Records
---
Amino acid sequence: MKYLKLVKQPAATKTQPAAKPEPAPAPAEGAGAVVADIQQTPPAPVAPQGVPVKISSDRMTYDEKKQVVSFVGNVVALHEGLTLKADQVSAFFVAGDKRFDVQGIDRIVANGNVHAEKGKTSGECGKLTYLVAKRLLIMEQDPVLRDGPNSITGEKIRFYARENRSEVVGGDGKRVEAEFFAPKGLEVQ
């Protein structure tokens, strides 16, 4: 029911008294009542808040019981200059939270051929986990992080977004390896 048209009643003649309107029939059992006035114009649309995350994939599934939404196949996510590509990206919602928005997300997990890029910084790994409340990004399964020509690898790479710091951890026979390029013409004294 978008709009209602206002219909004028014909004027009563002087020779006949105006007829009393018939009472409205009683609502059927279980019928509701109108509880709001009719608006003359439709309500204005609500503008979205925040910065959008655009995600494209071959398929998307939502499992209400497990509280997870998954994007599968050639996933590309774009957000504030960051591009994330992976075989699969899943967002896990906070247990018991009924919100279907960013504030309700506990963690985001990207699996398979993960590639992230923002500006001149890029990284690859087999699995990437982002813990939303802690703002902690964890790269696993042969992670490599590059900043221009410089690169670093290890067992796990952790990036603490709040503090703008990272930690690279070796383990299971895999040591931390870094390759840094000094600017041309730099002389060690």
Note: The mean pLDDT is 82.
---
Amino acid sequence: MPADAPAPTPAPPPAGFTHLRPDGSVNMVDVGAKPATERVAVAGAAVLLRPETLRAIQANTVAKGNVFETARIAGLQAAKRTAELIPLCHPLRLTHVAIDFAVLGPGRIGIRATVRAHDRTGVEMEALTAAAVAGLTIYDMCKAVDREMTLTDLCLLEKSGGKSGAFRRAESAGGVAPAVAEPDPPSCPGARAT
């Protein structure tokens, strides 16, 4: 391209991508004019691990300590720090965070993160971050005995509040954490009990 030629005009961003400006650059959405409403999001994930690793967690014999309580604290911290980790997330005033675990089979742990806030934007990213970090913490706590663990099926299960209204994952055959959820909860693909 000759030096005096004008720069090509970037294509406009796809409709519905609120974090993109017309020139394609990123932008933190201005939520200042939106009303604060009650926001709730529930995310799920699963950790696949050896049955003997799960037994050690349940017996609280893992050398690093109580796996579920450490992962719960990590998930709580992660929800509160989401805006520091995900560049375009807004800092929110969370009113509640809960991290729950359920054994879904001999080699599967379900993780369920519930986050609430009375704010101007949703808490989906906080719930997803909490579930992911809780799962990563389970891996960290147990990696000395099981490096083949897999964190899988991270997904939004449901959300409510805000302009876009309610969302609930369509599948409902087992759930990510049925022992800690309502009867017949939605599930992420593959996160069913084995």
Note: Residues 172-186, 189-194 have pLDDT under 50 and may be disordered.
---
Amino acid sequence: MCNNIKINLINNIIKTQSIRILKRLTLPVYISGILLMNSCDGHIDSSPQDTPEKEKSESALQSISEKEEKLNRNHPAFNKNSEPFYSIIMEGLKGEVGGEHFWDVVAKDAIFEFLYNFPGFTNKIEGRDAYMDWFGRYGNVLHSADNLRVYKSTEPNNIVILEYEVHGIVPATGKTYDNRFCSIITIKDRKITHWRDYMDSLAAMRSLTCD
């Protein structure tokens, strides 16, 4: 009897000390994303936890979902008269974005800023859909685009700067349209999220003004 009492007493002491040690632990133990030991009270908890691997998987699935989003190819923004512009931008962003067409690689919440001022032209457009609607009303007929120069930022590493020229005609005036641009493009998850645009405003004004 005495021996049994001593053994039980020893077991209780060992158990008490073990719990005290477990309470001092500051790092939980994970195996395959399952939390095995709760460091706060020493109890076992087998509930699934949000691990970095799970977060990465969810992020990847979200990116895939966005990439697979199909746009209406019948939208006026898919105007062939603007194709030279779309093509030279896609050439400049090759390897940086994922998609077949310019509008495929523009994020839904992208912001476009235009650092020039002349009547009838806005300085800022928010959202891909709004910019598509604007481009749907674009009146110039572009014949070509060239003189592309590409500069890639290293810090931060998600900015691409493009210099290029476009050439065409303005049907409203019958004048030729030759303009130079510098576009500073921010990319995230292989999508355009921000765009700052500079151009030769005088060239634009001349093409839009009747003699």
Note: The CA atoms of residues 117 and 123 lie 7 Å apart.
---
Amino acid sequence: MTDKNSKLNYWMIATVALAVVLCLVMCFRCCGMKVAVINTQNLFAHSSVIRNLQIEQQIKYAEIEKWVAESDKQIRKQPTTAKQKELMAKLQAELAQKQLAFQQEIAARSQQAEDEIVALIEKVAHKKGFKVVLVKSSLVTGGVDITDDVIAAMNNVAAAQDEQKDEETPAEADAEAKVETEEAPVEESSK
């Protein structure tokens, strides 16, 4: 009985949501507002921001896996079962802290990535004269797809950030050269 109720509730909610979207579309058309749409699946599949976030997550996950493997070796090296249990409890607490920190970092980076994407969507939509942007999957008909423009903007921002990381200002280069020359005599005098 509850399964039928949950299905009924799902379809009622879906129908109401569709009706709201259709009403919005009709209102936008009556008012002459141009509506832009975003294909979120395509956006996420081709976004360098999302790709970089996924790479960061994979690196962090690999670091935790490596730490777990090293911890397991440490536990096995313990001479007694009591020492193994003691170390295991300590390492489990440390693992829980690492996992929590990992989850918090991922949540923060995900929120930052989402904010960056939303800002770029708003910027592209504004530049093209759109007041409203909807998710394409929630729209039955109409709207101008700006997904490719947003992807291009995201990739341009990512490329500019990469170039900025790679480039040093002349002052930074001079400061590094000065530090290197100051360190050289100190190393020689210690010999």
Note: Residues 1-33 form one domain.
